[in-house]
Amino acid sequence: MNLKPLGDRVIIKQDEAEERTASGLFIAGDAKEKPQTGTVLVVGPGKHDKDGNKIEMPVAVGDRVVYSKYGGNEILCDDEQVLIVRADDIYAVFA
Question: Average pLDDT in the 28-38 region?
Fold first, then answer.
């Protein structure tokens, strides 16, 4: 990927939306809700606090994460739809 996030930003590949409900019904394309989970592809260098100390990034490449529903920006990079979010918009890492 030829995209490098700056500061405390992270590039995430969103998981695919569910095609069926739990009971087996197909979901129409417009009715699919985008998942709030994905895999971290690239991590920025982090940011510095007001005293100049570097704040380490809370995630690493390959981590599966849960992120804010309305956080980040979707972009198309290398024919792949990705999401750029701030580290603060990531709520959890799957263990």
Answer: 74
